[in-house]
C-alpha cells in the first residue's frame, strides 16, 4: 500500500474485510497450541506482557527448544522465549525479564499517564453544559470495561457529535450517542 508523500488518508476501503476474529486453535488442535494457550506470562512489565500475549494469540510465539543463557547469572536458565533474564534473577533484581527495565519505574510512568488522562477528562467535562456532562458520565457508568485511553477517544467523538447538535434536537441525538441503550435506561 503506497501513499503519496504527506498523504496518510486512504481513499479506498480495506481490501480484505475481517468477518470473524482470528482463532489460533481453529484448525490446529495440536498439543503445542494447547500448551501455548494455557501459558501464563509472568515476571515481565505490562507492555512486554501485552506483546507476548499478542504473539500467543496470533500464533507468532515461538517457544524455546533449549534453555538460553541468562544475562544476569550467565547460566542456561532462561526457559521462556523472548526473555533475557531467568525468573530468579528478574525477581531478585526486580526488573522485567524481557526488556530489563525497572518494573516500579514503568508502573510509575503508567500511573502518571493515567493521571494526565484523568486531568484532561476533568478539564473537558468542566467546559460542558450540565446536561451534556451528566449524559457522558451516565454513558461511562454503563461502559465500565473501557480503559481511560478509550474514554479519551470516546469523549472526543461524543463531543463532536454533541457540538453538531442544537439544544432543541439534543434529546433525539441522545439515543444515537448511547448506541444500544434504550430510552428507559436514559431517563434513569
TrEMBL record:
Residues 1-21, 163-188 are annotated as: Disordered. InterPro entries: DUF2039 (IPR019351). Residues 171-180 have a biased composition (Low complexity). Residues 1-11 have a biased composition (Polar residues). Pfam families: DUF2039 (PF10217). It comes from the Eukaryota. PANTHER family: CHROMOSOME 9 OPEN READING FRAME 85, ZGC:101016. This is Uncharacterized protein C9orf85 homolog isoform X1. It comes from Papilio xuthus. The gene is LOC106117221.
Amino acid at each position: 500500500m503506497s501513499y503519496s508523500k504527506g498523504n496518510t488518508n486512504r481513499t479506498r476501503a480495506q481490501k480484505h474485510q475481517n468477518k470473524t476474529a482470528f482463532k489460533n486453535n481453529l484448525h490446529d488442535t495440536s498439543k503445542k497450541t494447547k500448551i501455548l494457550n494455557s501459558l501464563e506470562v509472568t515476571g515481565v512489565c505490562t507492555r512486554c506482557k501485552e506483546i507476548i500475549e499478542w504473539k500467543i494469540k496470533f500464533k507468532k510465539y515461538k517457544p524455546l527448544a533449549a534453555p538460553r543463557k541468562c544475562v544476569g547469572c550467565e547460566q542456561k536458565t532462561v526457559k521462556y522465549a523472548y526473555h533475557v533474564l531467568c525468573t530468579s534473577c528478574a525477581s531478585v533484581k526486580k526488573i522485567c525479564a524481557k526488556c530489563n527495565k525497572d518494573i516500579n519505574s514503568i508502573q510509575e510512568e503508567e500511573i502518571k499517564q493515567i493521571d494526565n488522562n484523568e486531568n484532561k477528562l476533568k478539564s473537558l467535562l468542566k467546559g460542558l453544559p450540565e446536561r451534556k456532562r451528566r449524559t457522558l458520565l451516565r454513558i461511562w457508568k454503563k461502559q465500565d470495561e473501557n480503559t481511560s485511553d478509550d474514554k479519551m477517544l470516546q469523549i472526543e467523538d461524543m463531543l463532536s457529535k454533541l457540538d453538531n447538535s442544537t439544544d432543541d434536537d439534543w434529546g433525539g441525538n441522545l439515543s444515537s450517542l448511547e448506541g444500544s441503550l434504550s430510552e428507559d435506561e436514559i431517563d434513569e
